[in-house]
Amino acid sequence: SCNGNTKLKKALLKKVRISAEKSLELFGDLPAEETAKIIPTKAEAFEVTKLKGSRVGFYTYKDVPVFIDVNGKGNIIPTVFGMWLCPAQMLVLTVDNGAFPHILNGADLMAPGVQLKLEDFPDFDADQPIGIAVPCGKVIAVGYTLMSSESLKKNGKTGKLVRVEHYLGDHLFLHAWKTSPSPHCSLPEDLEHLQELLNLPARAAIASELVEEEEEQKEEPQEELPAEDEQKDENNDQEEEEDEEQLPEVREKLSMEELLKMSFLQGLKASISSDDLPIIGSVFYSLHMQPNRPRGYKLDIKRSSYKKLVRFLQAMARDELITIKPLPKGEVQILTINEEHADYVEFAPYKTEASKKKASESSNSKKSNADDKSFRITKLLRPTADLFPVFSEIIEGAQKTQLYTRKEAVDTLWKYVALKECSKAGNRKVELDTALSRGAFRKQKKEGEIVTKEELATRFVAALQENYEISRDGVISVVKGCLEPIISREERRGGHKYVTRVKGLETYLLEPKDIAKELRKKFAASATVSDLPMGKGKGGAAPQEVVIQGKMNHQIKDYLCKQYEIPGKNIELFSK
Q1: Helix or strand or coil: residue 170?
Q2: Is the pTM of this model over 0.70?
Q3: What 8-state DSSP symbol labels residue 300?
Q4: Are 400 and 383 in contact (CB under 8 A)?
Q5: How many CB atoms lie within 10 A of CB 572?
Q6: Which of 10, 36, 162, 174 has the CB geometry, 3.0–4.6 Å to 109, for a possible disulfide?
């Protein structure tokens, strides 16, 4: 519960701005249009609220809690809502899928849960405000670092890294969720799947302004389309309906146990990929079971005979559909999927709750974003000299330089195992022959030794050489070996002046001169292009870097992700 709201006077509003600039290193470098989203120039609509029985207070702007004062001493940090509105105001660390369920339970962040190699951690001090984001890039918690980046690198990425002060689902979040009419207090689209996982109550009504806008849009006459465009739209609708008709729709009445089993199999067969494994059970439930339930049905594990998700997954493991590993606090981790199981093989995908939404989103994106830049990164594998005999035995006319997806490579492996009779049908053990012993295990295991199929598949894929196919607007480039990220580095250039250097753009089929021109217009800052030194024996054009004035790390990353679809994990930020 909260004490009454108090509107801030202009002098106190100025103190809040100063406190934000003092506490948050990146806040002062933000353009005025960004800070205006969370701190107004006038004191109206900006209020402070105190939580009863504590010193904790939070500042709201237009009914959105944007800052929180944890100890009542004026040392403010952004709330998750504030970070959704203005994500560049402080440093953010991204955690893996195994760590974020613990964060949502109120746990502090441990260093191993961060999705970064030790040498790639950005610079930060102890007791520095910091955000915690999930892989999609959205912040789910904020807190203070418990050690500096220098201490972290000395300790070897171990120990507790962040003391979490506010997170998705805590008392402040629930207060805003229940009472605020602002749409900015709803979950972003990338986090909507967490609503059922967090057991959030009914959302407050959306502001009356939005309702009025919708009514005005309904009253506005729609523009008449030319006959040709109408015909095209009708043809597109017919094509979408035909695609939908290819999948059966579940209409019969089903028990909760049957719904769980169907959603589980649908998630295994149509949603999750082998690259996602291993995966936390609760994460699999929220990302791959809930969206894949049959249309018109709701999943509720508590209404089933299992009562708990762990018991359901244990039952699936006893049926040998999956293998699991127990984790602390009653969680389990899904390790492997048995794609040879009769239930998996015989299961036919059906229409899901998510399929209709995806179809409408894809059709809308095709119409509204017809001129968007299409971009795709595909991981491909090339056989080594020792493993090439496995591919040449199965694929007629196979070439040593030929590239395969992970699925194609594993399928080739099992066809080879069947052809050479290295394993009996239904048996999960494989007897190694010369090619598998030499190629997959590098002679660490001898010919004739017995291994499990899971171990063989893991070692086989790891032995193949990584390649990455990058395509943009029909142009395709293949990168051999590790895919180097785009590097954005802030450097001090005398006094308080900074420049930001961006390199590695060519790898992602981006022209540095074009990017410099766009950044110059976007941020109204000077941007130039310079050649980088080339390594010995390297031919071709010299690589280039973009140099832009100011501390622009987070703005550049956000721009490249949104405008050119570069995954956030492929952009690394550094600051000197």
Answers
A1: coil
A2: no
A3: -
A4: yes
A5: 20
A6: 162
